[in-house]
Design a protein that fits this description.
By secondary structure, the protein is α/β, with parallel strands linked by helices. The chain is built from eleven helices and six strands.
């Protein structure tokens, strides 16, 4: 095998890309539930992503209360609970896997390759990780929310490859390119490849700047790792 391990991003990589308008609608629902002006709330919500995805604002309900406070609002406990449940429901809809995600991960494990995950996320994903269809095939899941750091910090990649017991040079990193993850993976010594969106323009916080190799499906990873 060309590599000893493959490290995956989660959103837009293992999952089907979520369109920007879908993300906007999800955030708007939360704003409406707590009685916040939608546009003002959405702006602040996106601006606080760097804080939220490393746990600096706490779990969703706590972060929501903090953002509301910054807007001069004081939602009730009932409003926060309802908004949290709506958020969780919406987030689950964004965790639909690409058709070849599970089969690709299963084959990598059958080949005895290490498999890890590095995801920039808030508390929803780690809280519900054990129920994910891909979880049994990922030996080392690394979440920005619990790691308290995000891509492209070299330390978050190290948690993955050190957790697998391999060198970065022995790893293939696969991502859709958000969070400057591909250049970050290359910077620590991995080989990186971008998997293109599955027919939908992905919601991202930063534009993708990646001149390197690209693939159109996750199953193409199997050819990359098995080619000498």
């Amino acid at each position: 095998m060309r590599y000893k391990a493959v490290i995956f991003d989660y959103f837009g990589t293992l999952t089907v890309a979520s369109a920007p308008e879908e993300r906007v609608a999800a955030v708007s629902t939360v704003a409406e539930t707590i009685g916040a002006p939608v546009e003002e709330f959405r702006t602040l919500w996106w601006q606080t992503w760097p804080e939220r995805c490393v746990g600096d604002l706490g779990d969703f309900s706590t972060a929501l209360a903090e953002i509301a406070s910054r807007m001069g609002l004081s939602p009730s406990a009932e409003q926060l609970a309802e908004a949290t449940e709506r958020r969780r429901t919406r987030e689950r809809a964004f965790r639909t896997f690409r058709h070849d995600a599970v089969s690709t991960l299963r084959r990598l494990r059958e080949w005895d390759l290490g498999v890890a995950l590095v995801s920039d996320c808030t508390d929803e994903l780690p809280d519900e990780w054990d129920g994910e269809a891909v979880a049994p095939y990922i030996q080392v899941p690394v979440f920005s929310y619990t790691a308290r750091m995000r891509k492209p910090d070299p330390r978050i990649y190290a948690l993955a490859y050190e957790g697998l017991g391999v060198r970065p040079a022995d790893c293939l990193y696969v991502g859709d390119g958000g969070s400057n993850e591909l250049k970050g993976a290359e910077a620590v010594g991995m080989t990186a490849v971008r998997v293109l969106d599955d027919g939908v323009e992905h919601h991202r916080f930063e534009p993708v700047d990646w001149p390197g190799p690209e693939i159109t499906s996750l199953s193409a990873v199997l050819d990359l790792v098995s080619t000498p």
